[in-house]
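Subject: design request, 426 residues
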C-alpha cells in the first residue's frame, strides 16, 4: 500500500555500497526506521554484542499488512519516489536497502501491527528468502529481530570485533540517536542487563543524563540556518557529536572544523538545522557524511554561532544565582610565570598567557604562524597592567575559548566549589 520498489533510474542515483558491516550498522538502520515511523518509545536488545541477536521494538505506526512481505525486498521504500526526492530528504532513511541488506545476511523476523488494524503480521526471512508469514496478536508498532548476523558469510563474520567492542559501538549509536531525539524514550539491554534507560526529556537534560555533566547552551539563528549547541569545556577527554537536520553525522571534515572552533578538550553536541536542499546525505552508503550547498556560508554560520556567549531563556535567567562580584576582571596574580589568575564574576580563571595572547593576535591578523611567533611566551614575567590588558582583550574575543590550534585557553573553578572544599558557605 505504501511500500514501492524503486525504479532502476532512481536506485542508480543512490550512493551504492554495503550498508551492513557490523551489529551497530543494523541497530542504526532499525532505529532510523522506528523514528521515521513516528515512534515515541524504542527498546533495543542485543546478545553477544549483537552478533548473536538484535531486537529493535517500537510503538510507531506499524507496517501495513499489504507491505509486510515487501519491506525486505531490494529497493523497497516508502520514503522517496523520484530522483528529485533525493534533493530534499526529510526522513532518516531513504535508500530502500536497509532491511534488504539485513535480511540477506541474517535470520530476520519482522512483527508489526499497523495502527489501523486489529491484529499484526509476522514474517520470517532467512538469507533474504521468505520462509513464513502469519497473523499475530501484538500492540501497535514494529519489532525487528535479527539473529546470527553473517551466518551465511563466515568470512565476513570473522571481521567482527570482540563482544565488548561491538556492544560499545551499539551503545554509542543508541546514544547518538537519543541525543538527536530527546522527545523519544530509549532503552538498551545487553545480555539481559539494562545498559540505558532514557525517558523523554529536554535536549539539555538528555545531554546531562548521557554525559553526567551540565552543559552551557548556545542558541543561534539567522535566516534559514539555526545552530544549537551544548558544550562542556576543559574535560579530560573531549568529544564532538554533530547533527545535521536531526541526523547524527560522522563527517571528518565537519568534526575537525568543530574541534578547531571548540577545542579538543571540549565535550559538545552541535545541532545544525538547514533547509533540506542545502544538505546532501546521498554521498555515502551509510548516510554518515554530508555535503553542504554553500559550504563556506554554512561553516561561517557555525563559527559565528559558537563564538557567542550562551543565550539564556527568561526562566534560566531567573534561576541564575545573584552575583556577589562585579563581572569586571580582577587580576589575582601570575602563577609560575605561565598562568594569569583572575576572578571574573563568581569564577576563578587560570589563563595560559601564551595561548591567550596567541588567540588575540590571531583574531587581529588571521595568521596562525605569525600569531604564535609574536605572542607572549610561557615563562615570561608579566606586569599587572599587561595581565589586565590581556584579560580585557579576552572578554572581547570572537572565540574566547580555544587557541587557533584548538587548545583550551583557560581553566575555571566556581568560587562555591572552593568554599565548600574548606567547609565554608558561599
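Subject: RE: design request

Done. Sequence follows.
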Amino acid at each position: 500500500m505504501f511500500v514501492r520498489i524503486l525504479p532502476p533510474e532512481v536506485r542508480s542515483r543512490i550512493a551504492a555500497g554495503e550498508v551492513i558491516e557490523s551489529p551497530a550498522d543494523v541497530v542504526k538502520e532499525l532505529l532510523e526506521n522506528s523514528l521515521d515511523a513516528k515512534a515515541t518509545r524504542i527498546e533495543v536488545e542485543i546478545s553477544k554484542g549483537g552478533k548473536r541477536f538484535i531486537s529493535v521494538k517500537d510503538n510507531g505506526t506499524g507496517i501495513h499488512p499489504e507491505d509486510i512481505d515487501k519491506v525486505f525486498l531490494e529497493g523497497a521504500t516508502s520514503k522517496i519516489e523520484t530522483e528529485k526526492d533525493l534533493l530534499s530528504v526529510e526522513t532518516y532513511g531513504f535508500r530502500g536497502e536497509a532491511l534488504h541488506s539485513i535480511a540477506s545476511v541474517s535470520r530476520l523476523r519482522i512483527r508489526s501491527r499497523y495502527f489501523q488494524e486489529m491484529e499484526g503480521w509476522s514474517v520470517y526471512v532467512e538469507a533474504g528468502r521468505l520462509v513464513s508469514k502469519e497473523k499475530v496478536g501484538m500492540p501497535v508498532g514494529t519489532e525487528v529481530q535479527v539473529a546470527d548476523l553473517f551466518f551465511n558469510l563466515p568470512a565476513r563474520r570473522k571481521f567482527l570485533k570482540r563482544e565488548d567492542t561491538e556492544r560499545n559501538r551499539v551503545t554509542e549509536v543508541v546514544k547518538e540517536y537519543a541525543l538527536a531525539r530527546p522527545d523519544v524514550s530509549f532503552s538498551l539491554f545487553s545480555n539481559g542487563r539494562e545498559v540505558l534507560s532514557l525517558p523523554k526529556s529536554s535536549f539539555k537534560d538528555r545531554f546531562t543524563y548521557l554525559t553526567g555533566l551540565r552543559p552551557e547552551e548556545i542558541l543561534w539563528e539567522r535566516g534559514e540556518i539555526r545552530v544549537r549547541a551544548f558544550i562542556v569545556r576543559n574535560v579530560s577527554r573531549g568529544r564532538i557529536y554533530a547533527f545535521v537536520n536531526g541526523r547524527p553525522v560522522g563527517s571528518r571534515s565537519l568534526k575537525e572544523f568543530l574541534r578547531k572552533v571548540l577545542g579538543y578538550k571540549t565535550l559538545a553536541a552541535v545541532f545544525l538545522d538547514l533547509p533540506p536542499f542545502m544538505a546532501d546525505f546521498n554521498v555515502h552508503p551509510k548516510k554518515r557524511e554530508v555535503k553542504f550547498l554553500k559550504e563556506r556560508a554554512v561553516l561561517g554560520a557555525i563559527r559565528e554561532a559558537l563564538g557567542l556567549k550562551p543565550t539564556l531563556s527568561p526562566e534560566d535567567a531567573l534561576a541564575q544565582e545573584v552575583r556577589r562580584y562585579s563581572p569586571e576582571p580582577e587580576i589575582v596574580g601570575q602563577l609560575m610565570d605561565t598562568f594569569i589568575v583572575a576572578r571574573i564574576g563568581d569564577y576563578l580563571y587560570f589563563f595560559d598567557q601564551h595561548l591567550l595572547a596567541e588567540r588575540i593576535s590571531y583574531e587581529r591578523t588571521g595568521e596562525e604562524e605569525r600569531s604564535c611567533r609574536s605572542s607572549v611566551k610561557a615563562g615570561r614575567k608579566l606586569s599587572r597592567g599587561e595581565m589586565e590588558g590581556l584579560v580585557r582583550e579576552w572578554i572581547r574575543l570572537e572565540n574566547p575559548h580555544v587557541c587557533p590550534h584548538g587548545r583550551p585557553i583557560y581553566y575555571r573553578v566556581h568560587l562555591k566549589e572552593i568554599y565548600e572544599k574548606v567547609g565554608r558557605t558561599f
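DSSP finds 13 helices and 21 strands in the chain.
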